[in-house]
Design a protein that fits this description.
Keywords: Signal. The chain is 40% helix and 14% strand. It has 367 residues and is an alpha+beta fold. It has two domains: 8-139 and 271-327, D-Maltodextrin-Binding Protein, domain 2 (3-Layer(aba) Sandwich), CATH 3.40.190; 142-269 and 335-360, 3-Layer(aba) Sandwich (D-Maltodextrin-Binding Protein, domain 2), CATH 3.40.190. Strands 3, 4, 5, 6, 7, 8, 9 and 10 form an eight-stranded mixed sheet that branches. A two-stranded parallel ribbon has the order 1-2. Helix 2 packs across helix 10 (283-293), helix 6 (182-195) packs across helix 7 and helix 6 (182-195) crosses helix 14 (343-360). The chain is globular.
């Protein structure tokens, strides 16, 4: 998923002093140790996801290491199982690193499957998106956005209440079933967070109330919104992760024109996290991979793939984001309000939304 303009050696030495890096005592030593290992084994990294193809190529070119890529289409659960299945294996089927959904980080830590490591840019990663002990850390995220077909929708909604407008009858769709799909659950949560004025404890309940009103008014379309249904006009407004919406905008090439809007309130971020296997056959290569991903270069690699780097606010504040990349995104200030729900908040909202959708909203979302 990504060089850092800062001098890494001092930071890395500081990590050594804190015990975070056991196998290398400077950045130069880390690079040397990784090269001695010779390779890195990854898993579940499709090249078209968040620009991973270019990120992997950049890492290989920078450090001269081979990257052994296992099962690019695996899911987070498969990655965890791969660590478990290869605890005593130092061969090519044992992953060194994983990239998983947020909830998988704490559970993998609890099972003893991860080892701690704090990258040199650690302090610029939001606290809510990382384990305090360094066992897992968010790397990129999307925020829930409105993907709008502007051939059909002339008054483009700017915030959640705007979706209730009379001219959006039979227009608004979720990108999944909120009884089971995380993206859809998070969209309902985001609408509820807006209605509850930021009170996470009420977001699930308020989100259901909002969608009940949206459905009663006739604006909600109970099908899974996709690029095709957006283009055809069946779902001219789709609520989905911004990086999916932005990729659709490119794919559709103006036919129809697509506007991607980050809502004014209820800006909810969905995080994917990185971690190093406790049984990594190439632990130094794994740490070097993490240094690369969290460097400026690595973080901008995500941005090129429309995934929001976890260090976005820090990069923007320091003028590190190229103008051409920013031009392809909604305004930077739109992301400054992004909320990173805690695991507890996510779990509570999921429980309410998935189990009460039928009784409160009563719309059966079709695939």
């Amino acid at each position: 998923m990504k060089t850092n303009g800062m001098r890494l050696t001092v930071s890395v030495l500081a990590l050594v002093a804190s015990g975070s890096m056991a196998l290398a005592d400077s950045m130069d030593d880390l690079v040397a140790a990784a090269k001695k290992e010779g390779s890195l084994t990854t898993i579940a990294l499709p090249h078209d996801w968040c620009g991973y193809g270019d990120v992997i190529a950049g890492f290989k070119a920078k450090y001269g290491l081979e990257v052994n890529e296992l099962n690019p289409d695996a899911g987070s659960g498969d990655e965890i199982e791969a660590i478990k299945a290869n605890k005593g294996n130092t061969g090519p089927q044992a992953p060194d690193v994983i990239d998983v959904g947020l909830s998988f980080g704490p559970s993998a830590k609890a099972e003893g499957l991860l080892q701690p490591y704090k990258v040199s840019t650690w302090d610029t990663i939001p606290d809510a998106a990382k384990d305090a002990d360094g066992y897992w850390y968010g790397d990129y995220y999307g925020v829930l956005a409105f993907e709008v077909n502007t051939d059909i929708v002339k008054n483009v909604p700017k915030d959640w209440p705007d979706l209730l407008a009379d001219d959006l009858a039979n227009s608004v769709a979720l990108a999944g079933d909120p009884r089971s799909a995380n993206q859809a659950i998070q969209a309902v949560y985001a609408a509820g967070l807006s209605a509850a004025k930021g009170d996470a404890s009420k977001a699930g309940e308020e989100g259901l109330k909002f969608f009940a009103e949206l459905n009663k008014k006739g604006n909600f379309v109970p099908v899974t919104g996709k690029a095709a249904s957006l283009a055809q006009g069946a779902t001219p407004v789709v609520l989905r992760w911004d990086y999916n919406a932005l990729a659709d905008r490119d794919t559709l090439k103006g036919n129809p024109p697509v506007e991607v809007v980050i809502p004014a309130t209820g800006v909810v971020a969905g995080v994917y996290v990185q971690a190093i296997s406790a049984y990594a056959p190439h632990p130094n290569a794994a740490k070097l991979w993490m240094e690369y991903l969290y460097s400026d270069e690595g973080q901008l690699g995500w941005l090129k793939g429309y995934c929001h780097p976890i260090r976005f606010n820090d990069l923007a504040k320091n003028g590190k984001i190229p103008a051409d990349l920013l031009a392809k995104l909604p305004p930077a200030e739109a992301y400054e309000k992004a909320v990173f729900p805690t695991l507890e908040e996510q779990g509570a909202a999921k429980e309410v939304i998935s189990k009460q959708w039928d009784t409160v909203v009563g719309a059966d979302v079709a695939k």
